[in-house]
Amino acid sequence: MIGIPLGLLTANAFEWAMHKHVLHDMGRDKNNFWAFHFHEHHKVVRKNDYLDPNYEKFPLGLHAQGKEAWSLLAVSAAVAPLFPVAPFYVGTLWYCAANYYRVHKRSHQDPAWGRANIPWHYDHHMGRNADANWCVTKPWFDYVMGTREFIVGEARESNVLGLKSIPEWLAKRLPKPERLGKDLAKRSLKSVA
Ligand SMILES: [Zn+2]
Ligand SMILES: [Zn+2]
């Protein structure tokens, strides 16, 4: 059963590292396979005030959303041989891959929901610094790595776990998000690259 928390932590660290080093660093080169995130998704989102209408498309096509879905399927297949030894761990990773797609898609189809439920990802797209806020489903590794930056005046999570409701005793023991994150200005829409 320890596989479940370990799986959640691994998936969150993977979200952070993959987004930063692969989707942004490697994807900055327009000819790279990973360019779909930085050159397609980011541009569309900036243009449409956080909405990405391409999520309406069939999810396994050769567009940004299809490449995102195929990448998640490939990672899920790559860990499958471990299933007989670590079923809870691998099962959790599969859940996290599916949940990543679901949450990312929903946030860009329903910006009000995204803003309220994953404000760290809203800040990633709409803030002045796109080299921050690498987590998507939960902000954990942004706090661990010191890369959580809040847009001043926007909604933000009330606890560092990014959970809507947590017991009072736990909330008191956790550091305040403001203590670990930094403030960030909102980028004006005119400065869309
Ligand atoms: Zn990004
Ligand atoms: Zn996004």
Structural notes for this entry:
By secondary structure, this protein is mainly alpha-helical. It has one domain. 55% of the residues lie in helices and 3% in strands. Strands 1-2 form a two-stranded parallel ribbon. The longest helix has 23 residues, at 3-25. The mean pLDDT is 93. It binds zinc ion (ZN) (2 copies). Residues 19, 23-24, 37, 42, 124 line the site of one zinc ion.
In short:
55% of the residues lie in helices and 3% in strands. With 193 residues, the protein is mostly helical. The structure holds zinc ion (2 copies).
Biggest sheet record: 2 strands, parallel
Structural class by sheet pairing and helices: mainly alpha
* C-alpha geometry: globular
Number of domains: 1
How would the blueprint of this fold be written?
Blueprint: H1 3-25, H2 35-47, H3 64-79, H4 87-109, H5 111-117, H6 119-126, H7 140-145, E1 149-151, H8 168-173, H9 177-180, E2 182-184
Parallel strand pairs: 1-2
Bound molecules: zinc ion (ZN) (2 copies).
One zinc ion binds at residues 19, 23-24, 37, 42, 124.
List keywords for this structure.
9 helices; 193 residues; mainly alpha; 2 strands; 55% helix; binds zinc ion; two-stranded parallel sheet; globular
